[in-house]
Amino acid sequence: xxxxxxxxxxxxxxxxxxxxxxxxxxxxxxxxxxxxxxxxxxxxxxxxxxxxxxxxxxxxxxxxxxxxxxxxxxxxxxxxxxxxxxxxxxxxxxxxxxxxxxxxxxxxxxxxxxxxxxxxxxxxxxxxxxxxxxxxxxxxxxx
Length: 143
Hints:
Number of strands: 0
Order of helices and strands: HHHHHH
Shape: globular
Oligomer: single chain
């Protein structure tokens, strides 16, 4: 994606490295080690044994959390770090964009993972009264 024509308008709306490190070291040590030990194994497994079809099957995401997602609390602290903290930064950047809206600007693109879009949709509808009017799907990869 060529972003040269909008380079001066890009906003970094994600957690910084120092803040991530600070939050990372607040996680229980057993979870940090578990992630460090299993991430390479999972990465190798994905690289050599998982097909695009298998990945696509598990990428489906609805606006509302599933029962399994709601009941799975095994990595709540990690979810807080990787999702909730980053969602707060993202929604604050959206608030800033809305507050300092420039005349003639009618679109804002948000390049973030799909799971974060739940927080974006919830925030825009509850805090700003927005209602979804349409959407554009972008294929990540083809099967």
